[in-house]
From TrEMBL, chain A:
UniProt-annotated location(s): Cell membrane
Residue ranges crossing the lipid bilayer per the database entry: 29-50, 95-116, 128-145, 187-205, 226-246, 284-302
GO biological process: transmembrane transport
Membrane topology annotation: Multi-pass membrane protein
Domain ABC transmembrane type-1: 91-302
Presence of the UniProt keyword Membrane in the record: yes
UniProt protein name: Carbohydrate ABC transporter membrane protein 1 (CUT1 family)
Annotated region described as Disordered, given as residue ranges: 1-24
Pfam families recorded: BPD_transp_1
Keywords: Cell membrane, Membrane, Transmembrane, Transmembrane helix, Transport
GO CC aspect terms: plasma membrane
PROSITE patterns: ABC_TM1 (PS50928)
Automatic annotation (TrEMBL), chain B:
Family the entry assigns: Belongs to the binding-protein-dependent transport system permease family.
InterPro entries: BP-dep_ABC_trans_perm, MetI-like, MetI-like_sf
Name of this chain's protein: Carbohydrate ABC transporter membrane protein 2 (CUT1 family)
Main location class: membrane
Pfam entry (one): BPD_transp_1
Any GO BP: transmembrane transport
Membrane-crossing segments per the record: 12-36, 87-109, 121-143, 149-170, 252-274
UniProt keyword annotations, A-Z: Cell membrane, Membrane, Transmembrane, Transmembrane helix, Transport
Domain ABC transmembrane type-1: 83-275
Organism listed in the record: Knoellia remsis
Subcellular location, record wording: Cell membrane
Amino acid sequence: MTATTPVTATDTGATPNPRTRTKRDNRDGIAMVLPTVVIVVAVIVIPVLWNLVLAFQDLRLIDLRDAGPFDNLTLENFRRVFTGPGFWQALWNTVVYSVLSTAGSILVGLGAALALRRPFPGRGVLRALMLLPYVAPVVAVAFTWEMMLNPQFGIVNVWGQRLGMDRPIDFLGQAPWAMATVIAFEIWRYFPFAFLFLTARLLTVSHDTEEAAVMDGASTWQRYRYIVLPQLLPVIALLCVLRLIMTFNKFDDVYLLTGGGAGTEVVAVRVYDTLTGRFDVGGAAAQAIMLALFLAVALGLYHRILRRQEQRS
Amino acid sequence: MTTTHASSDRRAWSLVRWVVLAVLTVAAVFPFYYMLMLSFVPIESLLLDPGRIWVAGQQLTTETYRTVLASTENEGQGFGLFLRNSAIVATACMVITLLISIPGAYAVARLPFMGRRTVSALFLSVYLFPTIVLAVPLFIAFAKVGLQSSLVGLMLVYVVQTIPVSIYMLRTYFETIPETVEEAAEIDGAGRFATMRHITLPLAMPSILSTGLYVFMIAWNEFLFALLFLAAQPERWTVSLGLAQLSNGIEVPKTVLMAGSVILTVPIIVLYSIAERALTEGLTAGADKG
């Protein structure tokens, strides 16, 4: 009796009134999230909106000092983007680059995750080593690839010739090779990302069903195909979306490896060149918007297809 | 009959598995080995025998590292200075991002405030938004307010870029701390901020550390904005930018730049090996939910 009384007393003391508590939560929550919101709005939302205005302005870098925020409004930038061949080619390159890199990195990541699934001595070390391409600085690894693929002294060409290639290949400067190489680089850098996610999901796949299937005489292939893979599909779908978005917007990798030459110009690199090479602010802004729009439409379509499939099943 | 069939099936797959493991490990590690090897070799020696994958001890040199680190007045490439710049930017970015995102993540995880869902959606869209769309207006805006070619401007951009992922990682962790722990402290009379400081933050320390390291790594590795803002100011270059700029030219011997690549990579590998487990768990939290 004496033991219960103080507990009820403090209980009512700590939460005197649910409404004041909610109010306080509300006030504290807003106060705590405010710095983040302010900085995100100032450095992301406002610039993005401004980019929209810039896309409708005829603006060169030199005019920047005197130009007002709404001077020289025009549709000329978009007209040039739509009618010139360069942008559409770059958009197509971006699609090829991001779709093949995404598919490749998920496939290789899946192979790695399945191969490292069962424990064996040294598994932890191998797992850590496989994440290296993902964590290492892009500039350093891009430069190393450049060295390895160099037509004169790169190790790939030297060994390739020893093993029967009749002449060195300029992997980063020759049309079909350059795109294949930047895709290979992207797969190399991001298979660990897929590997991480798939490994995390594999941990929760129950062994019981698999063991039962083995008892029933299922082959290893059948086990993977009909038991493990279906359980991984949601993560694979998530990975597809994440990697597609990320690769679609990618600048560093292509810029560092080829500078956008030899048929590898993706939209992000083209925006950069328009801005810093031709000093055409409006043109750069218009192309950046087109990239974002295309991505948004693609994601919207994907979302709809996914929902329709869910409804059907 | 079926048992022999099953065991040959198993043996075949076991072989496939080891082949996959061997190929992937070599593919993942070889470029780093190649980088390390060439960084200790004089350029003449590389050109003489470009195909080797092993270098005998007496042919190794540390001259490449001396050259790459020395300041330009001492006929070096100035990577010492670049290292300082990168360290300043990445450390400041890490501290500021944590200071801002810890309360933010806590609020999103715990407090039912007005607009919580909008805020979460805002952060997600920032995370997925094309960086290049930001590049154009920020380039212009920073030129106008004079933040262009300053490390402060660069840091500001990094903070904003790392806040969403930082909030995501911290929030998932805060959600795993049972609310009853905090309620117990509040019942004992502690206010919200006292509870946070003495109970929640110490409990979340592993996650805070790994998030901080991750933010540091992103800032250290970043290239696009460094290039946009600082390209014209060699004395403000970060290691990433310095390496990229110098590797475009033909003046600097390639093996010296390989030493630069190693210098750029080593801090990341060290941090990563400290925090590997926490990092991989923090990043993939939520993946198992499908």
